[in-house]
Design brief:
The protein has 399 residues and is an alpha+beta fold. The protein has eleven helices and 13 strands.
Length: 399
Amino acid sequence: MPIHTQMSSSIRSIRHAGWSSNHHILSAPLRLCGYIFLGLSWAVAIQAAPLFGPGPSLVSGDWPDHSAALCEVASETRRYLAKGPGYDPAAIHGGTLAAIQTPLARIEATLEYLCAVHQADQAAGRPARLADADFLQQAFEWQHWRPDSAKAASLAEGKPLLQRLPADQILLTKYYVRLADGSPEQTPAHPHALHGLPFDEAELELEQADARGGLTRHRYGKQAVLQGVLEEKGLAPALIWLSRADLEGALLQGTAVVEQDGQRRYFNVHRNNGIAYDRRIRPEQQARYWYFKEVPGVLGYGKDANYKIPVRPEVTVAGDIFQLGLGRLVLLQTTEHGQPTYRLSVLADTGGAFHDNLYQLDWLSGYYRDWADYHAHNRHIGDYAHTWLLLKRADAPAP
């Protein structure tokens, strides 16, 4: 659903804003700029609003092919979109910004076309056209995305990556699915529960729960939960017991995968306590708290846990779906091992840090045991990305 450093790479698995290394992370990995801001010692090029329009020409680079996984996420996202704006008006729309507004049907058609191209390539035994720059330029309309530098600047104090944010690239943070150790019982090594919905709403649909006042879920902040109030009063079930580090990872990333007896159990965020995520403070200090649900696999966005979008690493990004619209096809140009690298992804996830955030995306990088494992596999990927929104052209080549 979405971990920082003070090194050159942002590599992080939380959707927060880049803290410096004295904040338990490695390098400030979330949004930062390079501008000039009144009263501060760093320079920032402030842009009044994000800009969508013509962008730089593509340069030669690597095009990893993940067409099969991309098709899977596109199909699942299109299935969610098919429920229509009436089901989830906050996410199912063609964008709220005039520069990128488009009929919802075009977003759906773009996702459908992705799969048609992939399937045709497979059937013909030919190289993947979704990893071919010439084909993509023939098949899609492109809009380059420049970041909302003014918003980023307002949050950049103490966050080097936001302070260095280029005027023409968005901040690309990375998140991952944490492979956690868990216990069915509370132990000294696993003192914190991953909680299921409180008992007073366990049988209620989201709309029913929202219409009822005085719910346990809305009564307590994260810090009270960490002190054990839910256990003391018997208010919510413990799904699994985790270390503090694994609990924080689950709350930040929205997913936990626990390996027990040679098998994996998947847990995904269900509902939260209604307290907004505060980007000015550290993750451990937040009041926002999520309750979880055990699910069959890794899930992205969905307004309730009863229906969320299955997602895959390397082809999924989280971002501001409330302004951009769920299901956007995104092309990222990053720098990896010093070389340009291009990746198609679907905007199929979001998080608390993405409300009113048009300077950042969060890329789902993979499955890792811990920060060190994650960092080792992602430190070569740059912190910023030229980013385009793609829509299928009316005259696109036949699949």
